[in-house]
Amino acid sequence: ELMRIPLFGWALRFLKPIAIDRSQRFKALKQLISQGKDRLEEGISVLIFPEGTFFPKVAPGEYLKGSAALASSTGYPILPVVHNSGEHWPPDKLLKIPGTIQIVIGPAIHSEIHSIDEIQKKTVSWINEAIKKW
């Protein structure tokens, strides 16, 4: 839906985002895998927010399996990252809250011999453990 915003959407296209229809979950997953493979083959890193949207607070949550499905179908690893930027730039506020944004980068989760569910479990486990440390 972001691609349809005048000017912003047009500018966004230059960044080669993966455009999906979030209202149709199965179709969105197929779009993610197809376009994700294309980007990876072009040497472009793919950034996926596994929650499917933005959350203002860092907390363990429900994560979608798109990144695990892409990793499983391409053989590329997942590099999990957690951050607390939502605490300093809430989605419903125009002004940012001063503070330090913390970013934690995890170890690569390799996908060659794992199922989507195993990749998802390893990824979610690392994310939730990293969040607990805050």
Question: Can you offer a commentary on this structure?
Answer:
The chain has 134 residues and is mainly α. It folds into 2 domains: 1-46, no CATH class; 48-134, no CATH class. Helix content is 37%, strand content 4%. It contains 4 helices and 2 strands. It has a two-stranded antiparallel sheet with strand order 1-2. α2 crosses α3 (66-74) and α3 (66-74) packs across α4. The mean pLDDT is 87.
Which features does this protein show?
single chain; 134 residues; mainly alpha; 2 domains; two-stranded antiparallel sheet; 2 strands; 37% helix; globular
Strand order of the largest sheet: 1-2
Order of secondary-structure elements: HHHEEH
pLDDT averaged over residues: 87
Structural class: mainly alpha
Straight-line N-to-C gap: 33 Å
State the low-pLDDT regions, or none.
none
Number of strands: 2
Task: Furnish the topology, listing elements before pairings.
Layout: H1 8-13, H2 25-41, H3 66-74, E1 81-83, E2 103-105, H4 116-132
Antiparallel strand pairs: 1-2
Helix pairs in contact: 2-3, 3-4
In short:
It is built from 4 helices and 2 strands.
